[in-house]
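Researcher: Quick test of sequence recovery. Tokens follow.
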């Protein structure tokens, strides 16, 4: 029997900091256990096409991505989805409502990495269970015919979940990452790149250009095997302004500057505004003020703002919790959120205030 190099020399030189590894269910196996019905597939496809139609101006509506900062309880998330589905139908003439379903959270240092990583909030890190529960939630929400949005963080996760996603975002901390730009180039859904944490536009615009081109990189296939992945490029990418270290960047001057930069790079002037994060100065109660400002800019003639994002939950605010305690129902455990009731009010205001302006700007775009 041939001995390994370590057995021959007595010196271990690899996996020195690996404590353990376990084989994960393959994407194909998980999708077989939790399949998307034909009705769900048709719904997801229709939602993606609707978002693309907003981006190319053949649909006059404003996209609003609304939902919890992060999912931590599937029952509460489904309750929120049912409420959002009802209001989405009410405002559908002028607003395309998409639910946030964020299962992964980037961390500057350490902290909870999201529902997939630790679905039971007890540091048991049952990732396979997290994937299974996440996919089931996406299927349940999709059955409501509600479009879904998520953040693509781990480059392996999309193979498990993204067949059910209508819109994707790449976060401020990962927009500059080559790995995430390559991954984005192969995603099936339209997507947004957030501006960098400094608030500048260049990082996100570079990412849009990169993701629009084909790439080749190491990934996994549907069977979970390591594979050289070749992409076609994703031409439905746009910028998401979320503010930065220097403060908000949703004002008309910042929008004008962003438009000019996009034109200089020969890119579509599609801009989405994140009403939370640095744009709200990390104060969730200011999200409505940001949404009102965006609404007024569109009334005043803005043609580039195609959507906005709201961090919203059943109840407003946020909470801390310990490993031995259970979170209070309906309240975020990450960023503070506005309540669903306030979210509904914002959506109704947008629907009524922008009914004519959104159609007018579409007619102007067609005429030009």
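Model:
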């Amino acid at each position: 029997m041939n001995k390994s190099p370590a057995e021959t020399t007595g010196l271990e030189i690899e996996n020195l900091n690996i404590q353990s590894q376990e084989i994960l269910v393959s994407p194909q196996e998980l999708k077989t256990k939790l399949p998307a019905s034909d009705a769900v597939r048709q719904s997801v496809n229709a939602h993606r096409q609707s978002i693309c139609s907003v981006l190319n101006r053949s649909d006059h509506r404003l996209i609003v991505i609304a939902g919890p900062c992060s999912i931590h309880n599937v029952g509460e998330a489904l309750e929120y989805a049912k409420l959002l589905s009802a209001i989405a139908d009410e405002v559908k003439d002028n607003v395309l409502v998409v639910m946030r379903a964020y299962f992964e959270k980037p961390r500057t240092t350490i902290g909870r990495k999201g529902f997939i990583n630790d679905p039971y909030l007890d540091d048991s890190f049952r990732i396979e269970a997290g994937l299974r529960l996440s996919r089931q939630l996406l299927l349940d929400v999709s059955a409501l015919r509600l479009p879904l949005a998520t953040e693509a963080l781990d480059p392996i996760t999309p193979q498990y979940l993204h067949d059910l996603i209508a819109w994707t975002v790449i976060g401020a901390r990962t927009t500059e990452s080559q790995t995430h730009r390559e991954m984005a180039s192969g995603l099936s859904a339209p997507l947004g790149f957030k501006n960098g944490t400094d608030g500048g536009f260049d990082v996100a615009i570079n990412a849009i250009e990169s993701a629009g081109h084909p790439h080749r990189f190491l990934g996994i296939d549907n069977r979970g095997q390591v594979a050289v992945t070749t992409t076609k490029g994703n031409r439905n990418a746009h910028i998401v302004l979320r503010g930065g270290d220097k403060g908000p960047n949703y004002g008309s001057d910042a929008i004008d500057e962003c438009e000019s930069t996009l034109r200089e790079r020969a890119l579509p002037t599609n801009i989405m505004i994140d009403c939370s994060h640095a744009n709200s100065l990390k104060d969730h109660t200011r999200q409505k003020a940001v949404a009102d400002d965006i609404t007024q800019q569109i009334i005043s003639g803005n043609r580039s703002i195609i959507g906005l994002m709201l961090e919203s939950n059943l109840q407003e605010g946020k909470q801390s919790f310990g490993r031995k305690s259970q979170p209070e129902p309906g309240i975020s455990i990450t960023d503070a959120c506005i309540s669903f009731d306030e979210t509904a009010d914002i959506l109704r205001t947008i629907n009524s205030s922008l009914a004519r302006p959104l159609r007018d700007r579409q007619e102007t775009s067609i005429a030009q």
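The chain has a mean pLDDT of 95.
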